[in-house]
Amino acid sequence: MKHIHVTCAIIERDGLVLAAQRSEGMSMPLKWEFPGGKIDPGESPEECLRRELLEEMSIQVGIEESLPASTHNYQKFAITLYPFICSLKTEEIVLHEHAALAWLPAGELHCLDWAEADLPVVDSYLVACGVQS
């Protein structure tokens, strides 16, 4: 089974958290996720996250804290997510790959239809910031 390693950013701003909706052309269309992407060979997770966010949304972030990695097995592949809590350093977000984005209070994150691999990351984040899910 193929196993991919992916970073993801939990971007906080003004008490809200950014979620991105996958476009119809992506795998798992219209599911919500924390933005990020595949780690290239020789690349650190932090370097990957900065590169992917620039490519996907034209944004720069400050990486504040890492959360525990989480592995999920889909039917055809496994994915390990490396989540980082980040602050947004850029004013404007330009969506190059995603269909939509949403800024939500942490307690409302579970209202979205998340990609299955992101659900443990949502839970881990809620525990880290002391929010009841």
Automatic annotation (TrEMBL):
EC number: 3.6.1.55
GO molecular function, one term: 8-oxo-7,8-dihydroguanosine triphosphate pyrophosphatase activity
Keywords of the record: DNA damage, DNA repair, DNA replication, Hydrolase, Magnesium, Metal-binding, Mutator protein
Cofactor(s) essential for the protein: Mg(2+)
Keyword Metal-binding: yes
Name listed for the protein in its UniProt record: 8-oxo-dGTP diphosphatase
Reaction catalysis annotation: 8-oxo-GTP + H2O = 8-oxo-GMP + diphosphate + H(+); 8-oxo-dGTP + H2O = 8-oxo-dGMP + diphosphate + H(+)
Family: Belongs to the Nudix hydrolase family.
Pfam family of the protein (one): NUDIX
Nudix hydrolase domain boundaries: 1-126
Signal peptide residue numbers: none
Gene3D superfamilies: Nucleoside Triphosphate Pyrophosphohydrolase
GO BP term (any one): DNA replication
UniProt cross-references to InterPro entries, sorted A to Z: MutT-like, Nudix_hydrolase, NUDIX_hydrolase-like_dom_sf, NUDIX_hydrolase_dom
